[in-house]
Structures are given as C-alpha cells and as structure tokens.
C-alpha cells in the first residue's frame, strides 16, 4: 500500500482508539459491576480488532508509521 494510504489508516485507527478510550472512562461510572465488566470486555475486543485488522497490516508495510517508535528527529537528538 502507498505510504499516504497507510498514514490515513493509522490516523483513523488512532482516532477510533482515542474514542474507545473515552468510552472506557465512561464505563467506570457504571455501578453494576457485571455490566461494567461486560462492556469493558467488548471495548477491549474492538481495540484488538482495530489493532490486528488495521494497524498491524499497515505497520508491516510501513514500520515508520508506528506511533510508539521515536521519530527520526528524536532518534537523531538522542545520538548527540
């Protein structure tokens, strides 16, 4: 896949995960522990699907798009 396509996919996946993180925070407000646990599990499954189904294929082709790796600028500045 083209770099630009991979970047858009990664940006979209990260946006989805940010929204899911917000939902996970809201879930903490649920008083029913059984329901809270069920919803958290479902959110976790969605995060996993986004990672495995979208992010992993992009990162295999474009590892430089990994949001957890240092940018070229950070890597150069650490060498000094």
How widely separated are the two ends? 34 Å
Mean model confidence by pLDDT: 89
Please state the overall shape, judged from the principal axes of the Cα atoms: elongated
Discrete helix count:
3
Question: SSE order, as H and E?
Answer: HHH
Evaluate the radius of gyration: 16 Å
In which range does the helix fraction lie? Answer: over 70%
Contiguous runs where pLDDT drops below 50 for at least 5 residues:
75-80
Estimated share of beta-strand residues = under 5%
What is the strand tally? 0
Class derived from helix and strand content:
mainly alpha
Largest sheet geometry: none
Description:
It is built from three helices and no strands. It has helices at 3-27, 33-61, 72-79. 78% of the residues lie in helices and 0% in strands. It is mainly α and 80 residues long. Helix 1 (3-27) runs antiparallel to helix 2 (33-61).
Summarize the structure.
The protein has helices at about 5-25, 35-60, 70-80. The protein is mainly α.
């Amino acid at each position: 896949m083209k770099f630009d396509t991979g970047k858009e996919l990664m940006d979209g996946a990260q946006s989805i995960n940010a929204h899911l993180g917000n939902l996970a925070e809201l879930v903490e407000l649920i008083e029913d522990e059984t329901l809270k646990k069920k919803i958290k599990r479902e959110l976790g499954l969605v995060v996993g699907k986004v990672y495995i189904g979208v992010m992993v294929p992009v990162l295999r082709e474009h590892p430089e798009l990994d949001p957890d790796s240092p940018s070229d600028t950070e890597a150069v500045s650490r060498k000094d």
